[in-house]
Design a protein that fits this description.
Blueprint lengths: L1 H29 L4 H6 L6 H18 L7 H5 L5 H10 L4 H8 L1 H5 L2 H23 L4 H21 L5 H28 L17 H15 L5 H15 L2 H30 L20 H6 L12 H22 L3 H10 L10 H24 L12 H7 L4 H47 L6 H24 L1
Helix pairs in contact: 1-3, 3-6, 3-8, 5-10, 6-9, 8-9, 8-13, 8-18, 9-10, 9-12, 9-13, 10-11, 10-12, 10-15, 10-16, 11-13, 11-15, 12-13, 12-15, 13-17
Length: about 475
């Protein structure tokens, strides 16, 4: 946990550096830190300056919202307590970057290159996180990959400009309901399973944890975009907005969003099947030691009397899950009826309908097809086959996804080793050039002083010779000057 904390701290400092540079650029360009004057004068500022500000704001958003390339800290942050993951890593802190981009919308609207960079980061991250989530056996890390992917949807929508700003914030709100509920559900499962996080050791828990099963199931249906639930309304609107971008860019972004929907349905169905359905694999597992350290405050109490089988969590844990499940079911419809969410944010974010090459019905139909494909593949792999107790070798992509698509390996090779080589080079330059110049100058002065000191030997004859030589030089110089 300490290592994860340091990693999160360092990665977020990179994002904070981007925010600091953006703030300084804003001040030097507009003479103020206030959003109002800045956003109202973007039309009078050069595109190059706005692009620089936008890219630095994007860097800040990547750090805080775990977007590529600053995404590596979020999975490790799952070492913390699950309620923290539900609140900070699902509903609040990690979505701050999305708010920053949307709130700075006027800057991005006037900087197309920065806006394109935002959409690319969002599209890449939504696929990156989804692929990582497919290969995780740790229930919290699977949800962490899901969080990264869903925030990728929000960033993608924010990069679409006025077409997508409202839908980015709408998905931010609905995601807060169902993802916080899913994280609390994961914590409830861990509580009932004596702190076990490996889904390969779960199975058949729906009979023993009915409240957790129902609330987690509603969150699952919401995140995959089941019709009528909150995720259906917000994610569907983002996919529509992506296609409405138009041109080749619109087709690429819309296709990425649809592919992400299929992968989301796959990995979340995988989580449901491995946790609540199938064989009760936990019966074949040794009981976890009650003295084992726990990251869950609630689990520490029951660890003293660890039960040999799963059990439902107490009301202090299930009631918040029920509240969030209600939001997961009705939140999207509440915000969508009468376009109330759109009208509420439009004065700040603006809105544009765009010209989508596909009708809303066609996009919805495509999303449903992707949903069914993802669910079907997951059911074929995990619903009809026994779950292996040891992860199979898998394909090259699967092995890479288990290692977070080699992001830590990349950071180690490029940043850590690169930093070490750079440091050694700087040390060599410092010792050879900087210290060499200083020490060489000192040695030269010391040598010259030593030679001159020999002239001051205390003998009168030496001083007489010196005086005679000096006088001779003065006479010679005087005669030479007169001759000229």
């Amino acid at each position: 946990a300490a290592t994860a904390a340091k990693k999160a701290f360092l990665v977020n400092r990179v994002g904070d550096m981007g925010l600091s540079i953006a703030i300084m650029l804003m001040f030097t360009t507009f003479g103020t830190f206030a959003f109002g004057p800045v956003l109202s004068h973007t039309g009078e500022t050069g595109e190059g300056k706005l692009t620089a500000i936008g890219l630095m704001l994007l860097l800040a958003a990547c750090g805080k919202s775990a977007q590529v390339p600053l995404q590596s800290w979020l999975g490790d942050a799952m070492e913390g307590p699950t309620p923290v993951s539900a609140l900070i890593h699902a509903a609040t802190m990690v979505t701050a970057g999305v708010y920053l981009i949307v709130r700075s919308g006027a800057i991005f609207n006037a900087a197309p290159d920065a806006q394109l960079a935002v959409t690319v980061v969002g599209a890449v991250t939504l696929l990156f996180g989804a692929i990582v989530g497919c290969a995780k056996d740790d229930i919290k890390k699977a949800l962490a990959g899901s969080t990264m992917s869903q925030i990728g949807y929000m960033v993608l929508a924010a990069g679409l400009g006025p077409i997508g700003y409202v839908f980015a914030i709408m998905h931010l709100v609905t995601h807060g309901f169902f993802k916080a509920g899913l994280f609390l559900g994961a914590g409830s499962v861990m509580h009932g399973m004596n702190d076990e996080v490996d889904m390969r050791k779960y199975g058949g828990l729906r009979k023993y944890m009915p409240v957790t099963f129902i609330t987690f199931g509603l969150g699952y249906l919401a995140i995959i975009g089941f019709p009528g639930l909150s995720g259906f309304f917000s994610k569907d609107k983002i996919i529509e907005a992506a296609f409405a971008k138009g041109g080749t860019e619109g087709w690429i972004l819309g296709g990425a969003a649809l592919l992400g929907a299929a992968i989301t349905a796959f990995y979340m169905t995988r989580v449901m099947l491995m946790t609540f359905f199938g064989e009760e694999r936990w019966r074949n597992q040794p009981t976890r030691s009650p003295q084992a350290p726990s990251a869950e405050p609630a689990a520490e109490h029951h660890g003293e009397h660890a039960e040999p089988h799963p059990h439902e969590s107490p009301k202090v844990m299930t009631i918040p899950m029920i509240v969030l499940a209600v939001g997961s079911v009705f939140g999207g419809a509440f915000f969508s009826i009468g376009d109330r969410f759109l009208h509420w944010l439009e004065p700040i974010t603006g809105h544009s309908e765009g010209n989508s090459p596909l009708s809303a019905a066609a996009v919805t139909g495509g999303t449903m097809v992707c949903l069914l494909i993802g669910v079907g593949i997951a059911y074929a792999m995990y619903g009809r086959r026994p779950v292996p107790s040891v992860a199979p070798r898998g394909s090259l992509l699967t092995r890479a996804a288990r290692r977070d698509l080699l992001q830590d390996d990349f950071n180690h090779v490029v940043l850590v080793r690169g930093g070490e080589h750079l440091t050694r080079s700087l040390v060599y330059v410092d010792h050879t050039l900087v210290d060499g110049v200083v020490n060489g100058t000192a040695a030269s002065v010391g040598g010259l002083s030593g030679r001159m000191r020999k002239l001051q030997n205390g003998f009168a004859r030496s001083y007489a010779v010196s005086m005679f030589g000096g006088a001779a030089l003065l006479i010679a110089a005087t005669l030479l000057m007169r001759a000229v």
